[in-house]
Design a protein that fits this description.
The protein contains 12 helices and no strands. It has 260 residues and is mainly alpha-helical. The protein is globular, with a radius of gyration of 18 Å. It starts with a helix and ends in a 5-residue tail after the last helix.
Length: 260
C-alpha cells in the first residue's frame, strides 16, 4: 500500500497544478513523511523502510507517467487540463477550516504571493547547454522540486511552467537513463532541498501548525486559480467542451477517493 500511495503521489507531482504533497496529506502520509526525513537518524531502520517504499512508488510514477502526461498535453491539452482541474477539486477536502482573522490574513497573503509569481511567467522554454551556469540551474531546479514536493498545495509543475522549464523536466524524467549527468545534478539539488525544507516544515508543524495550514490553503487556492486561467486560454472546440463535462466529474470522483 505504501508503494501504491507513493505511485499516486508521483503521478500528482508531474501533473500541472496538482501538488504531490497535498495528495500525500490526503493519503495520511504527509506529517509522517516529514518526521521520517527530518528525524531520520532517530530511527534509521524504520525511517529507511518507510522512505524506501514511498520512494519506489514516486520514482516509478515519475519515470513511467512523465511520457504519458507529455503525450496527452501535446495532443489533447484542453481535456488533459480539465482532468487535472477535476483531480484538484476532488482533493479540496484536505483544506482546513478557517477559525480566526489571522488565518484569513495568512491565506490571502500566500494567495497574493503566488499570484505575483504567476505574473512573471516566461514564454521562453529552457534548453540545457551543459555550461557551468546550466549545471547550477539544474541543481536549483532539483531544489525547487524538493521544496514544492514538501510544501503542500504548491505545484512544482506550475513553478516549472512559469520558469519555462516544464518540458525540460518531463523529458529529463522520461529519459533519465540516457542522460545520467543531468539527472544526477538534478538529484543532488533534490536531496539537498528535501533535507533543508523538511527540517523547516517539521519545525513549523510542531510550533506553528495553524500558520502552516493557513499558508497551504492560500497556495491551494492560487494553484486552482492559475490552472483554470491557463485552461481557459487554450484553444478548444465545442466537442472538447462536451467531453470536458463528464471528464471533470469523473476526475473529481477519482481525486476525492483519497478521503475514504
Amino acid at each position: 500500500m505504501l508503494i501504491l500511495k507513493g505511485f499516486i503521489i508521483g503521478l500528482a507531482k508531474i501533473i500541472p497544478g496538482v501538488s504531490g504533497s497535498l495528495v500525500a496529506l490526503n493519503l495520511g502520509l504527509y506529517e509522517k513523511g516529514i518526521k521520517a526525513i527530518s528525524n531520520y537518524f532517530e530511527n534509521i531502520k524504520e525511517n529507511t523502510i518507510f522512505i524506501f517504499k514511498i520512494g519506489i512508488g514516486i520514482i516509478s510514477a515519475i519515470i513511467l507517467g512523465s511520457k504519458i502526461i507529455y503525450f496527452f498535453l501535446n495532443n489533447w491539452p484542453f481535456l488533459t487540463m480539465i482532468m487535472f482541474i477535476g483531480l484538484l477539486l476532488g482533493s479540496t477536502h484536505s483544506i482546513k477550516k478557517i477559525n480566526t482573522k489571522r488565518e484569513y490574513f495568512y491565506i490571502i497573503s500566500s494567495f497574493l504571493l503566488m499570484l505575483f509569481l504567476f505574473t512573471i511567467k516566461t514564454n521562453v522554454k529552457y534548453i540545457y547547454k551543459d555550461t557551468f551556469i546550466d549545471n547550477l540551474y539544474v541543481m536549483l531546479l532539483g531544489f525547487i522540486d524538493a521544496s514544492t514536493m514538501i510544501i503542500p498545495a504548491i505545484s512544482g509543475t506550475v513553478i516549472f511552467i512559469l520558469l519555462g522549464s516544464y518540458d525540460f523536466i518531463l523529458i529529463m524524467y522520461s529519459n533519465c537513463f540516457n542522460n545520467i549527468k543531468v539527472f544526477s545534478l538534478f538529484s543532488i539539488g533534490l536531496l539537498i532541498g528535501i533535507f533543508i525544507v523538511s527540517k523547516a516544515i517539521n519545525y513549523l508543524l510542531e510550533k506553528k501548525k495553524t500558520f502552516i495550514y493557513s499558508i497551504i490553503n492560500g497556495f491551494f487556492l492560487s494553484s486552482m486559480f492559475y490552472l483554470v486561467i491557463e485552461t481557459i486560454k487554450l484553444n478548444y472546440t465545442f466537442i472538447d467542451i462536451l467531453f470536458s463535462i463528464p471528464l471533470i466529474f469523473l476526475s473529481y470522483k477519482i481525486g476525492s477517493l483519497s478521503k475514504k
